[in-house]
Amino acid sequence: MSIRTRYRAASGQRGMTLVVCLVFLLLLTLIGVSSMQNATLQEKMAGSVTLRNGSFQIAEAMLRLGENTVKATAYTQTFCNTAANCAPPTTANTIGTSSYAAANGVVWVQSGSGYYAIQKVGTTNNPSIIASGVPINTTRKFYELYRITGVGIQGTSRTVLESIYAKQQ
After folding, report:
1. Could you read off the pLDDT of 125-156 as tens digits, one per residue?
2. Fewest CB within 10 A of the end CB: N or C in the chain?
3. Cβ of 160: how many Cβ atoms within 10 Å?
4. What is the pLDDT of residues 85-139, one digit of tens each?
5. Minimal CA–CA distance to 112: which of 154, 147, 71?
6. Residue 151 CA to chain centroid, in angstroms?
């Protein structure tokens, strides 16, 4: 085979390598873009979970603050007079640092990025009958029932927790 024959054989395939390389480069680019979109989505989801957990922790802390407030021996409160007055505020900025609405029987207190409400629900002689089915006690001690609502706000996440607290009179 002469030099001229070898040159002709190689010249018939010129440019094919470039096309194959460009196709592979396009495929690698598409895989890279897809991976970046997936990583961005996972980062957003992880941030959302972090905000949700933070708001839950704040709401639970507010709930405990409310329970400790009710636990004080000198604490008393009136009943709510209407459902509208007992409803939570529409935004957190409508609550002062410590606001007491004596007329409607709800106490709203803001602390940091959360707040809690205390509402007197009623009086009973045995609060455990509600959950456990235990017979009514014979000692005739009465308990005041309070609904405590804790609200936590973290970023765009808002968590609301409630508990019923029974305080012996």
Report:
1. 776 655 555 555 556 678 888 889 899 988 88
2. N
3. 14
4. 666 655 544 454 344 454 556 777 888 888 888 888 878 777 665 555 555 555 6
5. 154
6. 9
Instruction: Name the least confident of 7-16, 62-71, 156-165.
Output: 7-16
Phi first, then psi: what are they for 78, rounded to 5°?
-90, 165
The string of DSSP letters for 52-110 reads: HHHHHHHHHHHHHHHHHHHHSTT---PBPS-HHHHSPPSSGGGS-SEEEETTTTEEEEE
Residue 139's SS3 state is: coil
Helix/strand/coil for 121: strand
Residues 34-43: b if buried by 16+ CB within 10 A, e if exposed:
eeeeeeeeee
Q: DSSP label at 136? A: P
- Cα 125 versus chain centre, distance: 35
